[in-house]
Amino acid sequence: MSETLSPNIVKARSGLAKRLTGSDAIIIYILVAVIIVSMISVKFFASTLTVGFLSIQVIPILLIAMPMALVIISGEIDLSVASIAGLTSAVMGVLWRDSGWDIGIVILVSVLVGVVCGVFNGFLITTLGLPSLAVTIGTLALYRGLALVVIGDQKVANFPKELNTFVLSKIGATGIPVVMIFVVIIIAFFAVLLHFTPFGRGLYALGFSKEAATFVGIRVGQAKFWLFVGTGVVSSIVGVFLTLRLASAGPDNGTGMELSVIAAVLLGGVSIFGGKGSIPGVVGGVLLIGVLTYSLRLAKVPETALIIVTGSLLVLSVVAPSIVSWARERLRLARVHRVVQQTSSSGSPHA
Fold this sequence. Notes:
About 75% of the residues lie in helices and about 0% in strands. By secondary structure, the chain is mainly alpha-helical. The chain has a domain at about 50-295. The longest helix is centred in the last third of the chain and has 44 residues, at about 305-345.
């Protein structure tokens, strides 16, 4: 006698199958495939040195991608993140050079720059009701211009060597930077916030429909305001990290990084229209772009070609979901049409 599976087991199996074939899983499969191909075909890729350089390069993108994912899921966007990092670096350099403060106080005040920038973005978007795309395009230029005003075209490079050494230090012989521990903590924070709290679940509703989110009790303006404050804070942390990593503060730190962040977030399965996405998928998207660009760089591919690759991945991440949805809808309509034809050919039982 065949054993009948309980509804719970059937549900668990279907849930597992969905996870194994979902967009997050597909990104991980592609990432693993790219790593394997790179290890086989690219000289020096399979080494702890590669792990170290690759990790250091993806840390800024990985950090900013966390709050950016939440912003895009809510139906908004923030293009000013790289400029906030540059402004933070400029302020940090000037404070260290001229104020005589302890480096800890300099770092704390520099992070407050991100808070102010995030509050300004959030005010314009949530209080004045301006579109986030237009606002953050404007503040992208504004914050980068302010960085030039603050520090000019100079560089400040006399930061404590022990901090630079710490930022570049590795965990044993693994090649993984020590600061990756703090990055993992931040990733875990945003994962819990998005997937296991009412605030995070509300962001999905907000991305689908602002009116529906308001109807179920979500404070739309307040939620979006704090999201932009979050991108400001994390961007300023990245500005501090870049300054210490490069041992140099300048207005051009982080230039162009917003393109890589958005490409990674969208490639990781976050819908540009809002309402869809996950932190594991975003982490996979960041690592995929990081591994791909680093392996191409090791293969002596020109930097201009790497920019084309990043741009192509950005376009693909936007277009691919629409193509998949179109294909699924066509298959569904084809099945419906086939069922209707079979019903028509067999005749109505009540005729």
